């Protein structure tokens, strides 16, 4: 079988599946040329990507939708070939806001449904249209989280056919268990999207999620932006790592050893690779570390 992103999926606990390789569409707006997102998504679909990860707060979902619709019109793909993941932001956790927020995303994308919709962070902010609400003194305006109530509203969106699968992001085990143990739970979280890369392999969280049939979806797999406003830049970029570069030259890509890939590392290379883990998180979000539901104070 030809090994590509297009024909390899991981099963989810709700009977759906997720393509194993995805394209993240976040970019720093001030550093990104106009139209670059649409160009990137179209190029990605052309070479075999089928999993596209986006969010309303990235401010480019209209470009993602444009690119997907163009490729469908060309006959390159059908809608069911594309797996789009959208995200519910922290200012829209109130149950009555969940459905309208997802409907807004669908209107921007000009799609009838999204394949996966996830709670982007477990921390709630002041409800409203301001993405990053602050008071007159610049202090963040937080809101009391009720993750179970938010989840029930998401379940209603799934039942209405607006989304096929539901998940979370940046949740620690305690926060994930709040939903898993919710009385009357109808739809389990199929995934937890978290930072995971050779410097931060998250073995304990991975084991916990596996025990609960929750797939780990990795973000920042090759590092992330170096914006010091919200990123820990004390560690050197992954793409400058000597071992990763030497392995990359050998296998023409970076990643974790997995049976679907047409390469394997030697036992010695695997030991060297595993030794890269420094338990260093790039995406610390320390500006919100005083939020009652800040997820990264706990061990994992």
From TrEMBL:
Q: Does the keyword Oxidoreductase apply?
A: yes
Positions with a binding annotation for substrate: 143
Q: Indicate the residues that form the catalytic site.
A: 58
Pfam families for the chain: Aldo_ket_red (PF00248)
Marked site, Lowers pKa of active site Tyr, at: 87
Q: Which UniProt keywords apply?
A: NADP, Oxidoreductase
PROSITE patterns reported for this sequence:
ALDOKETO_REDUCTASE_1 (PS00798), ALDOKETO_REDUCTASE_2 (PS00062)
Listed GO MF terms: oxidoreductase activity
The domain of life is Eukaryota
The UniProt record lists the NADP-dependent oxidoreductase domain at 21-237
Assigned protein family:
Belongs to the aldo/keto reductase family.
Q: What is this protein called?
A: NADP-dependent oxidoreductase domain-containing protein
């Amino acid at each position: 079988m030809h090994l590509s992103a297009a024909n390899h999926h991981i099963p989810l606990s709700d009977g759906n599946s997720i393509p194993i390789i995805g394209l993240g569409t976040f970019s720093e707006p001030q550093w990104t040329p106009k139209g670059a997102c649409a160009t990137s998504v179209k190029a990605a679909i052309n070479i075999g990507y089928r999993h596209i990860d986006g969010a309303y707060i990235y401010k480019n979902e209209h470009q993602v939708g444009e690119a997907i619709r163009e490729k469908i019109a060309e006959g390159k793909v059908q809608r069911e070939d594309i797996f789009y993941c959208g995200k519910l932001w922290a200012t829209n956790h109130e149950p009555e806001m969940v459905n309208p927020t997802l409907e807004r995303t669908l209107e921007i994308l000009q799609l009838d449904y999204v394949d996966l919709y996830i709670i982007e962070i477990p921390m709630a902010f002041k409800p409203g249209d301001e993405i990053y609400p602050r008071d007159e003194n610049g202090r963040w305006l937080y809101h009391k989280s009720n993750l179970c109530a938010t989840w029930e509203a998401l379940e209603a969106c799934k039942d209405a056919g607006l989304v096929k699968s539901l998940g979370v992001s940046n949740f620690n085990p305690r926060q994930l268990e709040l939903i898993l143990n919710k009385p009357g739970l109808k739809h389990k979280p199929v995934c937890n999207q978290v930072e995971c890369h050779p410097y931060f392999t998250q073995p304990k969280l991975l084991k916990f999620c596996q025990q609960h049939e929750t797939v780990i979806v990795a973000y920042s797999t090759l590092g992330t932006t170096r914006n010091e406003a919200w990123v820990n830049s004390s560690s050197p970029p992954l793409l400058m790592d000597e071992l990763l570069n030497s392995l990359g030259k050998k296998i023409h890509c970076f990643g974790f050893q997995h049976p679907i890939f047409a390469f394997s590392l030697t036992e010695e290379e695997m030991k060297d690779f595993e030794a890269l883990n420094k338990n260093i998180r790039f995406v610390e979000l320390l500006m919100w570390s005083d939020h009652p539901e800040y997820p990264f104070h706990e061990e994992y």
